[in-house]
Amino acid sequence: MVFMHFKIFFFNSIFKKKLKMSGRFANIGLKKNEDGTLVNGGEVLKGKVVALYFSASWCPPCKSFTPVLADFYSEASEMGLEIVFVSFDRSESDLNSYVKSHHGNWLHIPFGSEHIQQLAKEYDVRGIPALIVIKENGDVITKDGRNEVSSNPPKAVMANWKKSVSS
């Protein structure tokens, strides 16, 4: 875990680009978990509340939280939530295995994409698992998405997040 914190800190200090949904995400290819198809991030995230899920298959707390998030998503997706998995897995096969065996039907950034570290820097991710909920333009709604998802029903959480999108 210490190595992961160092790795995130190291990359956060190198990458300077600011990644916003309204700009760069419009041209980012995201993979669908169900079949691996690449889709345009700007199109599939338009009008959605977006939860960036920073996680990895080798992380025990991530493995505990992922099923909770998958259950939450099964209800909240109908209310306008889209999850984008941002993987810190060490190999593409680890990522693919984790996605197929543990995840809901959400999107993920392809393995090895420069956007993984850019997002970690943009949202100051210091450890995993982290669930950062953002507006379509990239502004943060909450950095405490993990706690909110774990302790509240989807309907209440989504109402709160959607209210933040409007303000």
TrEMBL record:
<dbReference type="InterPro" id="IPR036249">
    <property type="entry name" value="Thioredoxin-like_sf"/>
</dbReference>
<dbReference type="GO" id="GO:0047134">
    <property type="term" value="F:protein-disulfide reductase [NAD(P)H] activity"/>
</dbReference>
<dbReference type="InterPro" id="IPR012336">
    <property type="entry name" value="Thioredoxin-like_fold"/>
</dbReference>
<keyword id="KW-0677">Repeat</keyword>
<protein>
    <recommendedName>
        <fullName>protein-disulfide reductase</fullName>
        <ecNumber>1.8.1.8</ecNumber>
    </recommendedName>
</protein>
<dbReference type="InterPro" id="IPR052259">
    <property type="entry name" value="Nucleoredoxin-like"/>
</dbReference>
<keyword id="KW-0560">Oxidoreductase</keyword>
<dbReference type="Pfam" id="PF13905">
    <property type="entry name" value="Thioredoxin_8"/>
</dbReference>
<comment type="similarity">
    <text>Belongs to the nucleoredoxin family.</text>
</comment>
<keyword id="KW-0520">NAD</keyword>
<dbReference type="InterPro" id="IPR013766">
    <property type="entry name" value="Thioredoxin_domain"/>
</dbReference>
<feature type="domain" description="Thioredoxin">
    <location>
        <begin position="19"/>
        <end position="167"/>
    </location>
</feature>
